[in-house]
Amino acid sequence: MCYDVSFTVKIRELADYFPDLIFDDQIEINFSAAIHIAGHAYANHPIIYVNREDLKLHCKLMEWGVIPFYVKDEKVFVRQRANMLNARSERILDDKTSYWHKIRNRRCLVPVSGIFEHRAIKGWKKKVPYYVNVKGERLTFLPALYSVVELPDIETGEMIKRYTFTIITRAANDVMGKIHNDGENAGRMPLFLPFELSKKWLNEDLNLEDYKAILDYELPSDQLEYTPVYTIRGKGERPDLKAKNEYYEWEDLPQL
Question: Of 73, 147, 180, 203, which sits with the fewest C-beta atoms within 10 Å of its C-beta?
């Protein structure tokens, strides 16, 4: 699946890709912390979406991990939310009972510099994390879905509109299958798209045929760079004091 991402560019660089982008918030990014963003922290991330009031492209901070619009008590939903960080592409159109089908037209993009995924190696106690990014691209825009719910503020009781999102995943290509090779969700990867398809994903007039074609798209393995890195868990610094997304030499690491 996709539970760890990286965002290492200035927020205003998003306008280089989407010149008419409107920023809804005063967005400030802690670049040190944003080198590794963990989904289970349910933190805010800048999301690109079409505002339903003016039908223009906006960038807004949304929380990673969908809270469905029907939830009335956030505390009751806490455990379930861990399962809402990702949406399987196969369920969005084909499973009409899923929440993803209900919000299939709330499409958005998650800008990332890359993602992290873990590889299990026979005989090794710990998995080896890899930093994965699209070759030659400073940014990749991952297709996602967003949801809106009104929940009471814990302190004031005032009803607040909360925007949350989920990243879409698909069956892994060859190289990602070798990296994400263990666990309940082994053999999955984010739905990496070329930039033109990412832009198409936001098209309000996206027809069913094009929707299916985007969900079925598989980025070729040779378009990905994959770098072994030191553990990304925990708050401590690496032994070599380098950033979490930089190469780390694991002794006797088998080739993919």
Answer: 73
pLDDT tier at 210, thresholds 50, 70, 90 = very high
Render pLDDT for 92-138 as a digit per residue (tens, 0 to 9): 999 999 999 999 999 999 999 999 999 999 999 999 999 999 999 99
pLDDT tens figures, 63-95: 999 999 999 999 899 999 999 999 999 999 999
Domains of the chain are 4-117+137-171+188-221 (3.90.1680.10)
DSSP string, the chain: ---EEE--S-GGGHHHHSTT-EE-S-----HHHHTSEEGGG--EEEEEEE-TTT--EEEEEEEES---TT---HHHHHHHHGGGSEEEHHHHHH-TTSHHHHTTT-EEEEEESEEEEEE--TT-SSPEEEEEEETT-S-EEEEEEEEEEEEE-TTT--EEEEEEEEEEEEE--HHHHHHS-SSTTTTEEE----HHHHHHHT-TT--HHHHHHHHH----GGGEEEEE-S--SSSSPPTT---TTS----TTPPP-
Q: Determine how β-strand 128-134 pairs with β-strand 22-23.
A: unpaired
Residue at token pair 């989920």: 166
Cβ-contact 147, 175 below 8 angstroms: no
> Encoding tokens for residue 74?
């956030």
